[in-house]
Amino acid sequence: MSRRATSSTRPPRHPDGIPPGHWDENQAPDGYQPRNPSLLERSRHWLRGPDDLAARNRQNVLIDGIGVGFAAGIGTFLSVFLVRLGASNFMVGLLTAMPALTGILLAFQVGAFLSRQRQVVPWFSRARLFVLSCYVLTGLVPYLFDQHVPEIIVGIWALATLPQTVVSVAFSVVMGQVAGPRGRVALMSQRWSTLGLANALAVLLAGQLLQHWDFPLNYQIIFLISAIGGLVSYSFSIRISLPDQEAPPAPSGRGSPWRQELGVLRQYPDFLRFTASQFIFRAGLSMAMPLLPLYWVRELKASDMTISFINTAQTVVLLVAYLLWTRLAKRTGERRVLLICAFGASFYPFLTALTHSTGPLAIYAGINGFFQAGVDLVFFDIMLDTCPPQNQARYIGLYQTTVFTAMFLAPLTGTWLADHFSLGWGLLIASALRLGGFVLLYLLGVGRGLKSEAAG
């Protein structure tokens, strides 16, 4: 009896890991003071993430985006670094086109390979780490070599094209499973907003640091700093937990595998219409990618700080635009957002080609970022919505093959136009391709009757 009484007067211990509200302090004896968790304990709890698996996956996706945004923000200076090292127009265009060439050759096979894996997340996170590590290797090249530095850097990024292809296919699979049909637009809006914030801060930081050292040391330092983003990305992306994939269905029918795939795709005309129209629009996006920094540096003599402001303006606008387009898509439908944004994004290269001073460039980049945000969100959702549901990774690989084809041919065509005519003409044709893609998106009815909208 006395032993029981002694036990009842002993203050109960606060159970670790129970969130506020689950521990009723009114049941504790008088004088009991709950122990406040230390900073280390709170940090460990934050790193573990929420108790709910879905919430924990979303948190890991967002923090992974922060790491990617930081590294990619510094990576926006890669093409400028090559230009300042004396790389030719073709070399700069090749940097943009190489991942696409590998994707053309291997994206479908990578998709088929990933569809046979029980878990895609390890392939996604490790491939991403390898790609981001190439920025660090880029920074080391001028320390180790005195000659052919641009060629060696381009060679490093040639090796990175295979893991880049893995990332491009696995990303859609992983994000689609984390969010589900009803949450894709919202999750990607949040991810790309946080990624854009990290990107903008990294661009500003890099722009400031580039002013403090002489070339090429300044570029080498910022590329080494990008390792922070790569480590953050890997640490959190590897924690995404998804159920095992089911084994893909056995191929049916006669003929070659490609003929069988085309037979399946004929059953999904929405997927084919979207794939064809986005191909033309994306060609216009890709053609401008190497031409813009070339035009800034060679035609307008833009400084590193000016280029930093241009990139920052676009990424800052993206932060707000993702949220605005997400709300508008819920209210008016994704097709309307798609058409508005595809039309608006078509004029960025055109406006740049007509510009003869650096003053308006940041404004034009901000306008482009506003419309590009809507294109990113809706393209991603339409692709997953119209993709054949069985063996999804395989058909995402097929879709990515068309994306990479546009990304390979268009930059090389753009730099060829720049060499034989002018950078301005290349930018004008890039705008024309974007407008052509917009017309196809409208005429083919892309975005009508999305299943994700019906589900939401």
How would you describe the overall organization of this protein?
The longest helix is centred in the middle third of the chain and has 31 residues, at 269-299. The protein has one domain (51-242, 264-455): MFS general substrate transporter like domains (Growth Hormone, Chain: A). 75% of the residues lie in helices and 0% in strands. It is built from 20 helices and no strands. The radius of gyration is 25 Å and the shape is globular. It has helices at residues 2-8, 39-48, 53-75, 78-84, 89-115, 121-144, 149-159, 161-179, 184-210, 217-225, 227-237, 257-265, 269-299, 304-332, 334-345, 348-353, 361-386, 392-420, 423-443, 451-455. The model is unreliable at 1-28 (pLDDT under 50). Helix 6 (121-144) runs antiparallel to helix 7 (149-159), helix 6 (121-144) runs antiparallel to helix 11 (227-237) and helix 8 packs across helix 9. With 456 residues, it is mainly alpha-helical.
